[in-house]
Input
Amino acid sequence: MSTRLLAGIRNRFDKFTVVRKRTAGRRALARVVTIAVGATLPVLAAAGPALALKRDDGTAAHYPSLGAGLTILIFVVIPVGVFAIISALALLPSALSKPRYRPGNAWEHGSRWFGKPVEGETVTADSSAAPSTSARGGASAEW
Output
């Protein structure tokens, strides 16, 4: 490219630097306006029914009243029952399981190999792996 063409391009971009300085303030103003509109619009949308021309207090002549007993059943007993059922289903697996092994208690199961023993290796009881009876504690909190 020729130097004259490059000089013309530079002059055009120099004009944009002034615009960039102005747009920083415009961006800040746009952010403030966006936050203000975003906070105000939901409030106005929720307040729309309060500005209705026809007053409606929520009562309808053709719907009978629920009564105290039915209201308590619908809004108290049913939600508590659903909560109890979900809680029971969540606790059911742990209630049906066998007791877990706790450190310090006797091991009631036979030995199992994970994989096979190396050839020539014999299975021996290792006395250092047995839990000591004098010092207890740890996660089981049995001191």
Observations:
- The CA atoms of residues 50 and 57 lie 10 Å apart.
- The longest helix spans residues 3-46.
- The radius of gyration is 38 Å.
- The mean pLDDT is 75.
